[in-house]
Specification:
One of its GO terms (biological process) is monoatomic ion transmembrane transport. With 80 residues, the chain is an all-alpha fold. It has 4 helices and no strands.
């Protein structure tokens, strides 16, 4: 694989299909250029399997927000 390790997660996300949102945030132009450059890199099935095997989904899946912080989310905001 010819992907900088720190950007590997973005490239893996790009291969997860249209049902997965990809929103890489950055404050530096160089990082934005690196992120855009990832579109040129293609992971093959072997690469994707290797990544998936290293990080089992049951170890990284979960709620986006920790339970104590849910009360601060927009779902509970008074917007009227």
């Amino acid at each position: 694989m010819d992907v900088p390790f720190h950007n590997l997660h973005l490239q893996w996300i790009l291969h997860q299909g249209n049902g997965v949102a990809r929103i890489p945030g950055t404050t530096k132009t160089k990082n934005l250029d690196d992120n855009i450059g990832l579109l040129k890199v293609k992971l093959n099935n072997e690469d994707l399997k290797e990544i998936s095997d290293l990080v089992p989904i049951n170890e990284v899946a979960g709620d986006r927000i920790h339970a104590p912080l849910v009360r601060f989310t927009y779902k509970f905001a008074n917007t009227t």
